[in-house]
């Protein structure tokens, strides 16, 4: 029996398989509002066999966007725009999760479609002043303003309010984005956090904001909704965040109500030397699973069903995320099921059954 196409139960949700769609930025929202493109983009993955689809990084505040065209969940109007998309994923047998995020110092940047490069948007061209744990710029970006202690309460409240709206809209999962160099990761890493208050210095202090966010999101989500946390397992930089830190803080977030750790790497500093190869991030997921005993998902150049199956058989992870492969083939799940000889009868939409290999 295929592990990849066996169900996974987390709290009150049962996912039909363990081949999932990772968050991918598509820069197509209007003032945080999702529309037709998002509907087609996300629903197609459910039709293609995904067990769980995660949205792009969805900002909890306007200034928490990476680019102005990012999706948001800071208003009730944005909540309502998500409802038909969630319904479309559900009717196709999948589950939809939202990745809640705040960009911190990596915000206010041009969309790739603007052809203006990777730097900060000037304030007179719709840019905004970014906030971060410390006034340390991401390379090539404008210097951020260090957050005051009182402002952090507002950010926590924004994560909580966005989680509440996500539940009202019908999302199946809430993922907290604490990876890829965005705000919560910035607090975690000593390369971006030089604070001398209760949010800086020791690992416990640097993790304080994330732990408060996890508690707030868990409280807003209630007992039945799974809460994931995405971590970068390493900064790939000397003196930065590493796998031992990830393991320790993952255990702390589990104590606060997190159910699964989505393990990626990098993003905090520019020009990292990352040894990219198929499954290159899997060892970090394996370490977190081994050391914590909690549910873990892996990601990183996953392109085939047998590869994903082996990641589960080896004990590396409990679920496998992929991103670009789903863009190349929105029916990756159907193909992968055939590759591992899984019983995919129920997975294929009836409209597609004539194309199912015999």
The whole-number mean of residue pLDDT values reads 96
Residue stretches low in confidence (pLDDT < 50, at least 5 long) are none
Tally of DSSP β-strands: 12
Widest sheet, order of strands = 3-12-11-10-9-8-5-4
Helix share bin: 25-40%
Order of helices and strands: EEEHEHEEEHEHHHEHEHEHEHH
- Which structural class is indicated by helix and strand composition? alpha/beta
Question: Mind explaining what this structure looks like?
Answer:
This protein is an alpha/beta fold. The chain is built from eleven helices and twelve strands. The strands form three sheets. The chain has an eight-stranded parallel β-sheet. The protein has a two-stranded antiparallel ribbon with strand order 1-2. Helix 1 runs parallel beside helix 2 and helix 3 packs parallel to helix 6. It is globular and about 60 Å long.
Key descriptive features of the protein:
two-stranded antiparallel sheet; alpha/beta; 12 strands; 33% helix
Layout of secondary structure:
Layout: E1 8-10, E2 13-15, E3 19-21, H1 36-47, E4 52-59, H2 76-91, E5 95-101, E6 131-132, E7 145-146, H3 149-169, E8 173-178, H4 183-188, H5 203-206, H6 208-221, E9 227-232, H7 243-255, E10 260-264, H8 282-292, E11 295-298, H9 305-313, E12 319-322, H10 324-328, H11 332-339
Parallel strand pairs: 3-12, 4-5, 5-8, 6-7, 8-9, 9-10, 10-11, 11-12
Antiparallel strand pairs: 1-2
